[in-house]
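Structure ticket #2291
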Amino acid sequence: MRYAFTERIKQSLRPTLYRALYRNREQFECPICGYHGPFKDKRVSHDPDIVRADSKCPGCGAAERHRMLRLVIRDVLQPHGSPQKSLLHIAPELCLREWLSALYGTCHTADLFQPGVDFREDVQAMSFPDASYDCVVISRVLTIPPDLNACIREIRRVLKPGGIAIIAEIYSHEKTVEFGRMIESRSREIGVDLLDLYKQHFSRVETLLSGRYDGRYQLANRILRNGVPADNFPSLIRIPETGFMELVAACHVE
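Resolution: structure written out below.
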């Protein structure tokens, strides 16, 4: 209880302190919590020489991909949501849960390992009946389960007619690279051919790039290697001398 109280105090003070300490840095806006000010740099865990500059919102902790998801959901799902409709959030991001719950009358969370979810589910073989949900949101999961096609098939299966799946991944190659075994808790690296797999299962697939949104939200993954901008970070959707963009697919059932 004391730890939770301390964390709440820190969260409430952090945005004000960060704005004061770094008032000369570039200013951004978080579409999730409304914070306005400088964003925090974030180290990439597998390589100490690499930093994602201006990545993390001091207010809610949202990174580029979270802010991108929030804007896509605003544009694609918000007009679709209603108290009569239902949403399944797989591997839920904490900074999005409360807002998604307000859009849909039923908002369930699911994951195989994450604590605190409504359902313990393997996305390759979910226990939900066919056509259970009006929407599915899933981000940065499809590199993990061994059977990629089963994951897409299951996401499609649990959607109702007129439903939408919001799927976000990093696209590192032209073609998906399958490892054939688990390497650092991953089964593969995603290629843009995954978009073709979506099209095999869904009636219509929209691709939304982070470059469509205003720069004030800072959705570009600004990669610095030893303090120098690098655009050769593993991603096909590169921004010259900066890093890479986020891509989110909106997959429709008609």
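Closing remark: Confidence is low (pLDDT under 50) at residues 1-5.
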